[in-house]
């Protein structure tokens, strides 16, 4: 297909307090993209864009997500969360893509964020004021809202979360010895923070709160940023080692790694006629995980379920260790390190899921893989890896050797994950989502069968109510226990006569 490089311009016209219309003007008289506002987001049909620039559409055979192939690039559209993948790289959007009347709709931010990545140049014009004879009756836009800031400091990372309108459009950049974030809208509040020393020293606001500067220190290694929705947030993760907070900013020890198990001098002495299960309650401390609309936090539920499961398994004569037994922060890879040190027979990380689509429900089970089996699995792994420690993600020798060694556990991991999935499907009355694979940092390095279990969706109103019900919790625990008892029977030799 012949392709001529042109540029797309967006002209946003202000007609009232709310932006009620956005005309996407194509160059050389090729027309405009029709848009419509749904749930407060301006969206357009990607098929209309494809009529101009060509390409092929289809459905991904694994995830069943729609895709657009153009200029030797592949764009896959998640219909469960506000992301697309461009050549397997995740790009966050303002709203969830959706299919309607044989069309595929995405927010207009898709043009700015995605088109340059697939060979279509993009230029965004500044907002222009259009006066009419009734303009004197049009109210001026309200003053820009403040951007909320939350910070969390631990030994090997500093996390800064910005919450507010359009924060996901900000693009953090490293400029000399600073990380600079400039907001397209709004002003930051509570931005002046003394971090101490090590990874970064301080955060200050400039230009009346429109820009944030984080001053880096000698132990800084790298930084990453992730955008989240509901509410809209930009999460900045600054990595390194040896961060020491100043005395005036020191908080409780919950931001530091748990010491109780990592200070072990000798491994746990398990019974010879049993197995050792390491249960990992996901998240902890400042790493809250998913937060439901009613304020329920994933970190609290995962600890509750893991603690009750521990009690139930111990009654069956199974040895159990928890990676955390309180609201503490534990680096992801130290969780499997605990399991390895104690020669555990199986590692299970317990989590709760979320999706912008309220109707999505049911459990999901995952095993470790360098590559995700589908876009949704990759999305889940990206979310769960937010608190990844400062270890590099490179293909170093230890990771390559672990991948070779882990092959012997893949069959057993998949088997147990499948049994857990089947039991919970029966309990929830949901269709089997299948065992999925994705690069979860919390599973990396495990020298035993390892599974990450997403028990239910806190974004689903029905399941949110269920997971807090005592009887339902009891049923979930019983279902998981049955699977692990069978695992014990398969892996403990019968007593000799």
Strand content: 25-35%
* Number of DSSP helical runs: 8
Contiguous low-pLDDT stretches (5 residues minimum) are 1-22, 125-144, 248-264, 389-405
Strand order of the largest sheet: 25-24-26-29-27-28
Structure notes:
It is a single chain. This protein has 497 residues and is an alpha+beta fold. It folds into three domains: 8-126, 2-Layer Sandwich (Copper Amine Oxidase, Chain A, domain 1); 146-251, Immunoglobulin-like (Sandwich); 276-491, 3-Layer(aba) Sandwich (Aminopeptidase). Helix content is 22%, strand content 30%. The chain is built from eight helices and 29 strands. The chain has helices at residues 46-53, 109-114, 298-314, 332-341, 375-384, 397-428, 461-466, 470-491; strands spanning 8-13, 21-25, 32-33, 35-38, 41-45, 56-59, 66-70, 73-77, 83-86, 89-92, 98-100, 103-107, 122-124, 146-153, 157-163, 173-175, 178-182, 187-188, 193-194, 200-206, 211-216, 220-228, 233-240, 276-281, 319-322, 346-353, 364-368, 435-438, 450-457. The strands form six sheets. The protein has a six-stranded mixed β-sheet, sandwiched between helices. A five-stranded antiparallel β-sheet has the order 6-7-8-9-10, with helices on one face. A five-stranded mixed β-sheet has the order 18-14-15-23-22, with no helix packed on it. Strand 8 (73-77) and strand 9 form a beta hairpin. The longest helix is centred in the last third of the chain and has 32 residues, at 397-428. The model is unreliable at 1-22, 125-144, 248-264 and 389-405 (pLDDT under 50).
